[in-house]
Amino acid sequence: MIKYKKYLILIIIIAVFLFAGVTLKKANPGLISKEEKIGVVVSILPLAEFVEQVGKDKVEVTVIVPPGADPHLFELTPVQLKKISQAQLYVEVGSGLNFELTWMDKIKLIYKDMLICNSSIGITLVDKDPHIWLSPRNAKTMVENISEALIKIDPSSQKYFKKNSIEYINKLDLLDQEIKARLEGVKNRRFISYHPSWGYLAKEYDLIQIAIEDEGKEPSAASLTHIIDQARAFNISIILVSPQYNIKSAEVVAKEVGARIIKADPLSMDYINNLRKLVEEIITVRRNIIGDEKIKIMNQENKNNKNQEKITQEVINLQNVWLVYNNINVLEDINLAIYQHEFLGIIGPNGGGKTTLLKVILGLIQPTKGEVNILGMNPKEGRKYIGYVPQYCLFDREFPISVWEVVLTGRLGQRKCGKAYSKEDKQKAEQALDMVGMIESKGKQIGKLSGGQQQRVFIARALVTEPKILLLDEPLASIDTPLQAEFYELLERLKEKMAIVLVTHDLSAVSIYVNKIACLNRRLFYHQSKEIRVEDLEATYHCPVDLIAHGIPTGYSENINHTKVCITLYELKSVRKI
C-alpha cells in the first residue's frame, strides 16, 4: 500500500509541474554555450564536492539529501523534483544506497532525456556496503566517471574537465599517502562505529570496523553486550558516531569500556579535509590514551622508586620531519628520540634551524611532513608537560614586576581565567625559585637583576609547571663567563627530574655536562652518544673542524681520517692546530 502511495504522490507532483508549464530540459550534448552552466543533481554531498572539483565554474550543483539527513530514509520533495526536471545530468552513487534504490528507477523513467552517471562503475562492492566514496581510491574512480559524464554534456570543455579531474585525483593520491603514513605504526587497528559506514576506509588501510547498529536497527541487549565484550577483549578505545544517527548506544559502550567518542560525518562535502581530520583525531585519541598511561607510569615510578634506578621513558620522538618555507628546506628529514633524564646539547651555525626545531617540538610550528610525539601525544597536547626558556626574553626593565610575580605567571595555564593564584600555585613558585637559588630575591624587581639572575628566574618560571621536559634556547647568551659553570651545575641537578634539551654555541663547555650531542644545520647528525664524528661537524658547519667553536682559522689538520675518527666536543682542541 505504501509503495502505491509513493507512486501516486510522484505522479500528482509531476502532473502539477507539467500543467504549470515546467518543461523537462534535455541533455543536448554539444549545445552548451560558454555562458551556460550545466545543471547537475547529485544524491549526496560528497558527490557534489567531486562534481564541483571537476566542473568548477561550468556547473551548478543541487544536492538531494541535505546535511544531517539519513540517505537511507530520505524522501524527495516537490522542490527537488523541480530541480531534477531542470537538470541535464544526474550523478548517482550507484552502489545500493537506500534512497537511490527507492527513487532512481522512477527518476530515470520520468526524465528519459536526462543523462544519468553511475559513479560506481569500475568499483567492486564489498558486503553490499554502499558507502564506496569513503575510500580515496574509490573516490578517484568516481571522479573519473563524473569527468566522462560532463564531457558528454559539453565536449568542447573536454580539456578543462580532464585537467580539473587530474588535479583533484592528485590531491586524492596525496591524501591516500598521508593516511597511510599517519596510520603506520598504529598497533591496535580496531574501532567501533555506530553505523557501518567506514568499511571501505577500513579495508583500504588495514583497519577493522565493528558496527553497533544491527542491520539498520538499534542493537538488542545481547548484541550490545557482545560489542562491549569485544571492546574489552581487544582494548578498543575509539567509537565513531555520525550526526545522522542516535548515539545513545555508542555512549553506553563508551562508558562501559572507557572509549572515546569521535564525531565523524560520512556525508561531509569537504571530502579531503573530512577524512584527514578523522584520521588525525583517531591518532590523537590513541596518543592521548597512551600519553596519559605514560604520565601515570612515570609519576608512579617517581613516587615508588626514589632510591632505585629510574626506568627510562621516551619523552620526545621525531620521525622524518621536514619543514619547508617559501620553497626552502628549513629542516630536512629530522629523526630524533630523547628519553627521560637525558641532557641533550644541540649545536650548529646560526640559521641552521635550532630554534625552529624547538618550536616544532612545542607545536608552535607545524612541520610540512613527518611525525612529532611528546610523551605519545601530538605537540599541542603534549606541550603542557614542557618548560620552555626562549632565546630572548625581551621586556621593559623599568616595569614594576617582581621576581615572585614573574614566576607565578608560569601557573596561569593551570587555573581558570580570572581566578586568584591558589595556595598550590604559590607553593610551586617557591619550590621553583628555591631550585634555581633565587628564593631570597623573590621580592626584587626583575629588571634590577643581572643577566644571569634573570635567566635563573626565567628557568624557574618554566619549572613552576613541573614539566617532564625542559627546552632551553641559548640560555647563556646573557650570562657572564664566571657564572656559566654554576648555571650548568643547576642544569645537571635538574636532569634528575626531567629531560633537558639545550641549544647552544658553547662547544667546549657544554660537552662536560650533556649526555648526548647533536649537530643541526637543516639536517640532524645524531648518534645517541656524546661523541660526534669529524665529518658530521664539518657537514654541519660547512668548514674544517679547526674553524669551529668561535676560533680564528689557523689551519687544517691533514692527518685526520674523516671516515673513522670520532671525537667529543671536549676534545676539540686535540684536532686543532694551535
The low-pLDDT segments are: 1-5, 12-27, 306-311, 545-578
Helix content: 40-55%
Which CATH class of the largest domain is shown?
Alpha Beta
Number of strands: 19
Mean pLDDT: 79
Specify the number of helices. Answer: 18
What percent of residues are in strands?
Answer: 15-25%
Q: What's the name of the CATH homologous superfamily of the largest domain?
A: P-loop containing nucleotide triphosphate hydrolases
CATH topology of the largest domain: Rossmann fold
Shape: elongated
Overall radius of gyration: 32 Å
Q: Based on the coordinates given, report the CATH architecture of the largest domain.
A: 3-Layer(aba) Sandwich
Number of domains: 3
- What distance separates the N and C termini? 102 Å
The biggest beta sheet is recorded as: 6 strands, mixed
Structural class, by secondary structure, is alpha/beta
Going across the biggest sheet, name each strand in turn.
13-14-15-11-16-17
